[in-house]
Specification:
Mean pLDDT: 93
Strand content: under 5%
Low-confidence stretches: none
Order of helices and strands: HHH
Helix content: over 70%
Radius of gyration: 28 Å
Number of helices: 3
Structural class: mainly alpha
Number of strands: 0
């Protein structure tokens, strides 16, 4: 940001400060949105892990029951239940890809990126304000 010292008009400083203020406001809004999404993803990731664990346990138990049942309507019902549980497991695993721990880590990275962008804008604003003070003196 060495070129900021090339600014020779207070009006130019004011224009840059107005632009930087808008950028910071936009980034602050994005930060708030990302913070909320990060919290939501964290909650969803835990919920999905718990649900998936329950379905896997139920699926394992159903498979054990199927193995010992004689052929007949009870075994057919258990096989149907296993099919439904496998489908439920598939759906939960698919949701986990979109809203689970991986998505949470991605949201945390987005939030960190926004925080760094805000730091850059703050540094820029401070430099322009310093140049404006220099010009006013």
């Amino acid at each position: 940001m060495n070129t900021i010292t090339n600014l020779t008009q207070i009006a130019d400083c004011n224009a840059l400060l107005a632009w930087a203020g808008k950028e910071k406001a936009d980034l602050t809004f994005k930060k708030i949105s990302d913070e909320r999404l990060t919290v939501r993803y964290a909650d969803t990731a835990q919920e999905l892990d718990a649900l998936l664990g329950g379905v896997i346990a139920e699926l394992t138990a159903t498979e054990t029951i199927i193995a010992v049942l004689p052929d007949g309507p009870t075994k057919d019902d258990a096989i149907n239940k296993k099919t439904r549980l496998e489908y439920k497991k598939f759906l939960l695993e698919t949701r986990k890809e979109s809203y689970g721990v991986i998505a949470l880590v991605e949201k945390e990275m987005d939030l960190e990126r926004v925080n760094r962008e805000i730091e850059v804008v703050d540094t820029f604003i401070a430099a322009v304000e310093a140049q404006k003070v220099t010009l006013a003196a």
